[in-house]
Amino acid sequence: MTTTGEITFKTEPFVLNFGPVHPSTHGVYRMRATLDGEVVLDIEPVFGYLHRGIEKLAEERTYTGFIPLTDRLDYISPMSNNLGYCLAVEKLAGIKVPERAEYIRVIIAELQRLANHCIAVGSFLSDCGAMFTPFMYMFREREKILDLFDMVCGQRLTYNYMRIGGVSQDIPDEFLPALHKFMGTMPGMIEEWENLLKQNEILLARTKGVGILPREMAINCGISGPVARGSGVKWDLRKADPYSIYDRFEFDIPTGEVGDCYDRYRVRVEEMKQSLRIIKQAMEKIPSGPIRAEVPHLIRPPAGEAYAHIEAPKGELGFYIVSDNSIAPYRCHVRPTSLINLTALREMVKGWKVADLIAIFGSIDITMGEVDR
Amino acid sequence: MAIVNFMNNSPLPMQVTPADWPGGYWWHWVFFTVILIVFVLVMVMGAIYIERRGLGRMQSRLGPNRVGPFGLLQPVADAVKVLLKENIVPNSADKVVHWLAPIIAFVPAMMIFAVVPFQNGALLADLNIGILYVIAISSVSTIGVFMAGWGSSNKYSLLGAMRNVAAVVSYEIPLVLAVIGVVLMAGSLSLNQIVLKQDIPFILLQPLGFLLFFAAGCAEINRSPFDLFEADQELVAGFHTEYSGMKFAMFYLVEYGEAIAMSAIITTLFLSGWRGPLLPPWLWFILKILIVFFLMVWTRTTFPRARIDQLMALAWKFLLPLALINLFITAIQVLVWPDALPWILIFINIAIMVILILLWSKFFKLGWGRIEV
């Protein structure tokens, strides 16, 4: 409080409402931010604008019938959701997946990770104010992945490709050559983005040391995926609890050191390179054979419960299913990656500027479809 | 008649219109005012087209190409659309301030052109303090922007306007210091004289001055990477969030009008204005303006946005010391070797620029949260 003569000026924090309709809330997320000028004192997250009751809907559908709805969870990476759900049901019903289907699943899931990180990094940089150029560059590459997905399942956004016990249809003959072509160009594109951005002074200034998530807090909050690995937690379910056939592939787990926005961005880019490695190995070894196990049309898993988790592009995605031996799940719960990663946001943004609030939020990489379900 | 007599006896020199023109200064004034208004409007349309197509090309997309041949009529369509829109004034807005703001922001952007020579002596008023007039006038726009932010009674607008005022106040100083170097070299404040003195474009004799002026100019007229005042990702549209219809069109016009004005000033000060071989002078002038404007578009697509404290730190810790050193060196050069061979000076100045920038970037790093403002 300053006093000049008889006039008294006082300053007080004010509340600024970001969202639900705001260009950088990645959907309909809302932050009630308390600001002191440009400095963020506190935020209060408000979500639920996109709640569709997907978990409840699962109870009224057959086990197979729920797969299309998993597409709508994290609509940036639907293939991973499909995979996570199918793994849970297979675990519950004790279904063995054929070899070829496992390889197809791994290739598709890693392609999905590439596509997701293209959007994650692109929109993060766009949140840093890079005027859509990196965004468009990365979307261009994502388009090629979508073309590949289009080739295998005829869809570009909501794939509905995985089935319980395999995949819905075999990959067409032209898929592997097309994938080979894509694998030839993608490393060069990643290299180009690296050259453009890795040493960009403004980007370093905006992201280095900004929004630090300490290692302990990342573990305590249950953070997973690139956000946790950016904080130095070497936790990747593909290595820690290998599902499908991930134990057969060689790849590294990139981790950051500081846990700032820059580390999260780096981890994502490095993960893209590792995904390319996995796809390359899977392409070489893919066997021929059936693509789906013999499963009945209406699956009635024995009464019981199962939890299966996968390393989705955004982190640990889990499906917890309780069966009462009927054709529909008794209860289906999703462990949403985005929502749990979002819980640390408040601690990360305190004390930073408004511009950092957006950048830190972008660096977590959430999808509102998964947060609200 | 009194006003004509007054105009005729005014101290302002008239160079283009012959002394026996009917009405003397009066005709000169009308003639150039019409030319300026048409010039600014057409150039703004051209600039919008170039920017949108250029952005599209650089972002691997097409840009507007539907309206007219190659989308050339897109600015016209945009203008018509904006003008037909309803004019919405928020209930709690300060009506008078809200109404006045676009006009106050727009007028200075036009007035700058009054002293910019289109060819030798072809200008509205050859003020002998031309560049001083430009600097004084160009900062008046800020008042309009701040009025818009204040009058809208919107927190986003206010934040944007506060940022604008802070940034413009800071960036005026390196801007003016960079200009003084040119003025020392030319020995005149009149823009026409400055152009006449540029047998060698001052960009070669004052390379550091050019860079400083370009950076400070970009910040002054709200171009990326310093476009914090309408930071799309944070403040949605900044100070003109609450504007629509004709008033919004005015702000749009201001944005591009200022960009064209700044390009014209840079052209005049550093790129030897209308001078050039073969082509007519006015064409050279327009070409150079467009080249400088293209440089701005290029910067916009390439860099992420700086944060407000980094923006300030850049002005006070980087640009200001460099501008002072540049001024000092230029003064010594002008004083000690007034007749030095130009190519020696060019060599020395470019070497000094490289050394200074390298030195400063050693001391001063944006990254790692070292900046405290």
Tell me the number of structural domains of chain A. 1
Q: How much is the average pLDDT of chain B? A: 80
Q: Provide the low-confidence segments of chain A as ranges.
A: none
Poorly predicted runs of chain B are: 1-17, 367-373
Rounded to the nearest angstrom, the radius of gyration of chain B is: 21 Å
Q: Any overview of this molecule?
A:
The complex is a heterodimer of chains A (373) and B (373). Chain A has 373 residues and is an alpha+beta fold. Chain A has one domain (2-212, 272-372): Orthogonal Bundle (Cytochrome-c3 Hydrogenase, chain B). Chain A is 46% helix and 14% strand. In chain A, the strands form 4 sheets. A 3-stranded antiparallel beta sheet of chain A has the order 3-4-5, with no helix packed on it. In chain A, a hairpin with a 7-residue loop joins strand 9 (315-323) and strand 10. In chain A, helix 4 (99-127) packs antiparallel against helix 5, helix 5 (133-153) packs antiparallel against helix 6 (175-197) and helix 11 runs parallel beside helix 14. Chain A is globular. The mean pLDDT of chain A is 86. Chain B is an all-alpha fold and 373 residues long. Chain B has 15 helices and no strands. In chain B, helix 2 (25-58) runs parallel beside helix 13 (281-302), helix 7 runs antiparallel to helix 10 and helix 10 runs antiparallel to helix 12 (245-270). The longest helix of chain B has 34 residues, at 25-58. In chain B, 45% of the residues are buried. Classes of the chains: A alpha+beta (373), B mainly alpha (373). The A-B interface holds A 14, 16, 22-24, 37-38, 125-133, 136-137, 140, 200-206, 208-210, 353-358 and B 55, 58-61, 155-156, 159, 162-163, 224-225, 227-228, 231-236, 300-310, 361, 365-369, 371.
